[in-house]
Amino acid sequence: MDWSVMAGRMTIRHLELFRAVCEAGGVSAAARELGVSQPSVSQAVRDLELHFGVELFDREGRQMLLTEQGARLLARARAVLDDLGDLECAMSEAAGTQTLRIASSITCGTCHLPAALARLAAAAPQVRPRVRVEDSQAVERDVVAGVAEVGLVEGLVHDGTLVAEPFARDELVAVAAPGRAGEAVTAAELARGRLVLRERGSGVRELFEAALTERGLACDPVWESVSTEALVAAVEAGLGASVLPASLVDRAVGEGRVARLAVTDLTLSRELLVIRRRGRALTPATQAFLAALGA
Predict the structure, then answer these.
(1) What PANTHER family does the record point to (predicted)?
(2) Consecutive H or E run containing 4
(3) Residue 234: how many CB atoms within 10 A of its CB?
(4) SS3 at position 228
(5) Average pLDDT of the segment spanning 125-146
């Protein structure tokens, strides 16, 4: 999609870019998430400020805080973009197809979404899913912002405007190099050791750190990655231990690439959740997907 904006008049793209800045917390973050240039995002914000004759943000260093006028525009922009999404769905249904935008965390997207989409294709071939796989916080932002109708996440949901329903359970396990097979450690020993972990914003990282905090512990990983396979390779090379979903590391354990540790005082299990905006009507495509997911 061409995300360029047109100076001198307001367009839907201006509103999309403005919403992205608000949801991502800044121009740079919004540009990264959308895969567009930072100047185009900055220009969209300036165009809107000129168009309405107001300041939309208070700029304090690198922070961009919404003004009262900015918050008002964000609420209206979300409503307009939601209506536009509903219009697109209605028109696609009239043409015999139904588009469904799905955002999914990495774990859900790897272990659960493919099978659910296969069941959806068999039961409702008219539904055309469009999928984004990202960390859990980004999934929440996409659903809140209306970029996705539904999202799949692990663990905690932070935004009160979302409805969350469990559809499966998952277990996190500690893994280390093969030479440590069967080794027993405490949570404190695990936290003090060398750790290679998922990035901040992932459901895995959040659950693990919350469990440590409950015990008065903290960790300082030597390596962070969005890629489970990269972390498994780091563990296999002896660079540190990790905490990852059992469903994503069982194969590596079975192949002898990594070994499970027995953490004597820490058990980490979590619900996997499907989330959607509270109060937003369920489209037939969403209903079909929820049925395929088993939610």
Answers:
(1) HTH-TYPE TRANSCRIPTIONAL REGULATOR, HTH-TYPE TRANSCRIPTIONAL REGULATOR CYSL
(2) none
(3) 21
(4) helix
(5) 88
Find the DSSP H helices in 130-202: 136-145, 187-192
Coil, strand or helix: which one is 253? helix
Residue type, 232: V
- The whole-number pLDDT of residue 93 equals 61
| 218-241 pLDDT tens trace | 999 999 988 888 999 999 999 999
Give 162's strand partners: 277
Please provide the size of the chain in residues.
295
Cα 99 from Cα 63, distance rounded (Å): 36
- Those residues with Cβ within 8 angstroms of residue 216's Cβ, 6 or more apart along the chain or in another chain: none
DSSP 33-99: HHT--HHHHHHHHHHHHHHHTS--EEEETTEEEE-HHHHHHHHHHHHHHHHHHHHHHHHHHHTT-EE
pTM more than 0.85: no
Alpha helices in the chain (DSSP H): 12-24, 27-34, 38-52, 68-94, 106-111, 113-123, 136-145, 187-192, 203-214, 228-236, 246-254, 284-293
Residue 147 backbone phi and psi in degrees, to 5: -70, -30
What is the rounded distance in angstroms from the CA atom of residue 122 to the CA atom of residue 107? 23
